[in-house]
């Protein structure tokens, strides 16, 4: 059983999305491997803070090119669509926890590249933007 102090700490971490922030920053460090990691982290936190004041795209590990490549891997025969199951798994793999469960094309089990790109971008931006500093 958790103590009141442990529950309070868990609530704090959840409220401020600290785990998500640390996961995002750690992933970016491993991906970019900057020569000056402390300065890199400071820069990412500053960008995140600016994106809260001036809505836009917060710092994110994946960009449109990465999403396009991922879609290409899921659609090797270039049909222009992926299955709903592929869509869900791809978004989960990208670390997106909250996403549109019923995107355009879900009822036909055919998620277009345009829909995938839009939903993934919104999910990534939403995930990064919800981190509270």
Automatic annotation (TrEMBL):
Which GO terms fall under molecular function for this chain's record?
calcium ion binding
Q: What Gene3D superfamilies does this protein's entry cite?
A: cAMP-dependent protein kinase regulatory subunit, dimerization-anchoring domain
**Record's InterPro entries?**
DD_EFCAB10 (IPR049760), EF-hand-dom_pair (IPR011992), EF_EFCAB10_C (IPR056587), EF_hand_dom (IPR002048), EFC10 (IPR039879)
What Pfam families does the record tag this protein with? Answer: EF_EFCAB10_C
- State the source organism's domain of life: Eukaryota
What positions does the domain EF-hand occupy? 62-97
| Protein name stated in the entry | EF-hand calcium-binding domain-containing protein 10-like
Q: Which organism is it from?
A: Sinocyclocheilus grahami
Phylogenetic lineage: Eukaryota, Metazoa, Chordata, Craniata, Vertebrata
């Amino acid at each position: 059983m958790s103590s009141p102090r442990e529950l309070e700490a868990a609530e704090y971490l959840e409220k401020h999305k600290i785990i998500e922030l640390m996961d995002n920053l750690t992933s970016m460090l491993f991906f970019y491997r900057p020569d000056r990691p402390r300065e890199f982290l400071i820069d990412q936190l500053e960008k995140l803070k600016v994106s809260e004041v001036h809505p836009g795209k917060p710092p994110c590990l994946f960009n449109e090119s990465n999403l396009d490549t991922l879609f290409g891997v899921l659609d090797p025969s270039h049909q222009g669509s992926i299955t709903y199951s592929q869509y869900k798994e791809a978004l989960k793999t990208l670390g997106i926890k909250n996403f549109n469960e019923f995107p355009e094309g879900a009822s036909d089990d055919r998620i277009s590249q345009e829909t995938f790109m839009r939903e993934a971008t919104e999910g990534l931006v939403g995930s990064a933007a919800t981190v509270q500093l």
